[in-house]
Amino acid sequence: MQEQYRTLAREGVHETEINRSRFLCALAPVADEREAQEFVARIRREHPTATHNCFAYVLGADASVQKASDDGEPGGTAGVPMLQMLLRREMRYVAAVVTRYYGGVKLGAGGLIRAYGGVVGEALDALGTLTRQRFRLATVTVDHQRAGKLENDLRATGRAVRDVRYADAVTLEIGLPESDVPAFRAWLADATAGTATCELGGEAYGDA
């Protein structure tokens, strides 16, 4: 698995004008192909009179799913440069739709490639990106007496506390970089005088 990947901070739209053609780039974070396709369909419904609604999306931390469409533009001049910009910026789990309203001036193949790729890059800069880090999930169980201090200590040392559950004992779910697991076990034993247990679970991605 990838140790980390970059994705979009928030959904949004960025607009630019090139030789009287309007280019609107809508970007959204998407979890899977269904979400990506629904986003593309929604943008198309919002712009039914547009000349073109071209799209590209990249899914999977390792970019295992990549799709692009020129939507009537000359082959390879729209969807592919959009996809290439997403990949060049190492973006994952992101869908892009560029809506073009033709302004009467032909851009030529090179101009189209620069326009479609460029507006995606500008939109990424405008909306912002964030990095997601791969974590090993760990469940820490501790008595009520030590739980409050332990939770504070975990947060103070920059460890991601994902969930806290109270029952006979207190269970904290945390995310750890794989390389941090041995050091964390030693730290936990020291911090709780050996009274806490730590069970490793699966893997997930969280904010780096």
3D structure, described in words:
There is one protein chain. The chain has 208 residues and is an alpha+beta fold. It has helices spanning 33-46, 79-88, 108-127, 144-156, 181-191, and strands at 4-8, 12-18, 21-29, 52-59, 65-69, 94-101, 129-142, 160-166, 170-176, 197-207. Strand 4 and strand 5 form a beta hairpin. Helix 2 (79-88) crosses helix 3 (108-127). The longest helix is centred in the middle third of the chain and has 20 residues, at 108-127. The model has no long low-confidence stretch (mean pLDDT 93).
Spell out the blueprint of helices and strands.
Elements: E1 4-8, E2 12-18, E3 21-29, H1 33-46, E4 52-59, E5 65-69, H2 79-88, E6 94-101, H3 108-127, E7 129-142, H4 144-156, E8 160-166, E9 170-176, H5 181-191, E10 197-207
Antiparallel strand pairs: 1-7, 2-3, 3-6, 4-5, 4-6, 7-9, 7-10, 8-9
Helix pairs in contact: 2-3
List keywords for this structure.
single chain, alpha+beta, five-stranded antiparallel sheet, 33% helix, 39% strand
Low-confidence residue ranges: none
Cα-to-Cα separation, first versus last residue: 16 Å
Q: Which secondary-structure class do the elements indicate?
A: alpha+beta
Task: Give the topology string: H per helix, E per strand.
Answer: EEEHEEHEHEHEEHE
Helical region count? 5
DSSP strand (E) fraction? 35-45%
Largest sheet: 5 strands, antiparallel
* pLDDT averaged residue by residue: 93
Helical amount:
25-40%
The number of strands is 10
What is the alpha-carbon Rg in Å?
Answer: 23 Å
Morphology call: elongated
